[in-house]
Amino acid sequence: MIETDILIIGAGPTGLFTVFEAGLLKLKCHLIDGLPQPGGQLAELYPKKPIYDIPGYPEVLAGDLVDNLMEQIKPFEPGFTLGERAQDFEELDDGTFIVTTDEGTKHHAKIVAIAGGLGSFEPRKPPISNLEFYEKKGVSYMVKNPEDYRDKSVVIAGGGDSALDWSIYLADIASEVTLIHRRNEFRGALESVDRVKELKDLGKIKLVTPAEIVDLEGGDQLESVVVHKKNNPEEDFRIEADHFIPLFGLSPKLGPIGDWGLDIEKNAIKVDNSLDYQTNIPGVYAIGDVNTYPGKLKLILCGFHEATMMCQSAFQRIFPDKRYVMKYTTVGGVTGFDGSKKEAPKAVVKAID
Amino acid sequence: MDVKITIIDREGDSHIVDAPTDMAMNLMEIVRSYELAPEGTIGICGGMAMCASCQCYVKSETELPDMEDDEEAMLAEAFHVKDNSRLGCQIPILEELEGLIVELAPEE
User: Fold this and answer.
1) What pLDDT, on the 0 to 100 scale, is given for residue B108?
2) CA triplet A168, A172, A174: central angle to 5 degrees?
3) Beta strand pairing status for A176-180 and A2-9?
4) Domain limits at B32?
5) What is d(CA A204, CA A196) in angstroms, rounded to the nearest whole number?
6) How many domains does chain B have?
7) How far is CA A332 from CA A240, A305, A342, A345, in A?
8) Does the predicted TM-score (pTM) go above 0.90?
9) Which chain A residue is nearest to residue B74, measuring alpha carbons?
10) Which of A29, A40, A249, A252 can pair with A118 through a Cys bridge, CB separation 3.0 to 4.6 Å?
């Protein structure tokens, strides 16, 4: 069981900055995120795109903002459970909470701060009627263990980096790799596109474009996929396949959080914006893009503000009898849990003779 | 100045709306501003041509700006795509759009 003061669900910019504000109050944080890396949308969707409305940064790349936040919170030694999705929520009699991930990792916390952004990123599933029937029977949306595909025939669909990269990777493992895409053009790193072309010329990857998979066939296990060639609609054909891996990127869904008993409105969690961004469950807060209130704006800078207010409220909830006044970091410095201390240099007092 | 645009929502209902040409808005934002699709089901990526949640079918002969590479690439990976598919976030509201008729594509 992972123990922490504040359990933050979502490691996007708002979740990351919460660690800093909590750290100033000597509260420990642990973050859960379904993605394998911190940064949320910024890291997953647009790391190379610029953001222009972060106060004090005329321009900052999304990926750089995440790196800076990670640097800023390092002294407060946050824990991370990455690549796992927060699934189950339980409130204990003493007012603390247990959150369990889809992999079964349990977290025990005094406070839960949901900074889930648009939700957890789920694979986008192509509209094939019997796709879900074949899940775990030949269909998967990510490659977890490449060895599962040794000497098997694999069909991959998609036109982005992950489709290209896994086609390349599995070309040496699987008995057969077929890459299917709706267009002749791929949007991926140029070297990946070139490598796929080389492997195609070597006969190690079969490329079928422009085409798409329209049906799956088999008994209890996937046996073949039906390919619909765009310029030849009358002549759908079959490819024998042990595995079909559609790789169409990820899209965010509110997911299990929606079933935790929180007030939900417009796919977002309702909070008290007059005070501390607390939800209808005391001790559970929602900050950043995941919450809603009158006048809500889904901006990173608003998430930072909400995180700050939320931490003050969390402190009071954990220590109802402790007296405290907010202190500027310029005055108090930043003392990390790792023993590091940053502080403003003292002014030099010198007499003029 | 405003232009009149007809938007057919995902339930099949038609809405004729006024869209301002002077607010640097795009079609996806018009749909959101009139709340013609539930929040969280359209414009998820914020308008970066990265999610296709604002995909729509163009039903009129209105002249539209050509697709740029990222819109084309996103539509190549989107679902329910037809020949007249566009991403609403990539269509700026200009005077030329007067009379435009679009239908929102189903939610993925």
Assistant:
1) 80
2) 100
3) unpaired
4) 2-104
5) 9
6) 1
7) 67, 20, 9, 11
8) no
9) A187
10) A252
CA of B68, closest CA in chain A: separation in Å?
Answer: 13
Q: Which two tokens stand for residue A66?
A: 């995440």
A298 SS3 class: coil
Residue type, A229: K
The verdict on A265 and A293 lying in the same domain is yes
Nearest to A13 by CA among A73, A59, A56: A73
Percent of residues in chain A assigned helix, strand, coil, to nearest 5: 25, 30, 45
| Residue-wise pLDDT tens digits, A134-167 | 999 999 998 888 999 999 999 999 998 899 999 9
* Backbone angle region of B101, left / alpha / beta, with phi > 0 → left and psi within -120 to 50 → alpha: beta
Total number of domains in chain A: 2
| CATH number of domain containing B79 | 3.10.20.30
On whether ipTM exceeds 0.85, the answer is: no
Of A206, A222, A248, which residue constitutes the final position of a domain? Answer: A248
- Chosen domain end from A248, A282, A298: A248
How far away is chain B from the Cα of A342, in angstroms, using its nearest Cα? 37
Interface test with B, best of A266, A298, A300 (most B CBs within 10 A): A266
pLDDT value of residue B67? 95
| Contact between chains at A251 and B44 (C-beta distance less than 8 A) | yes
Determine how β-strand A341-342 pairs with β-strand A291-292. Answer: unpaired
DSSP string, A191-222: HHHHHHHHHHHTTSSEEE-SEEEEEEEESSSE
Is the CB of B67 inside 8 Å of chain A's CB atoms?
no
List the CATH number of the domain containing A172: 3.50.50.60
Q: Are residues A72 and A99 in the same domain?
A: yes
| Domain co-membership, A143 together with A207 | yes
Residue A327 covered by a domain: yes
pLDDT digits (tens, 9 = 90+) for B51-94: 899 999 999 999 999 999 889 989 988 999 999 999 999 999 99
Q: How far is B34 from chain A (nearest CA, A)?
A: 14
- Where in the sequence is the domain holding A116, given as residue range(s)? 2-121+251-342
Q: What are phi and psi of A305, to 5 degrees?
A: -60, -50
For residues A211 and A300, what is the distance between their CA atoms, to the nearest angstrom? Answer: 39
- Beta bridge partners, A176, equal A153
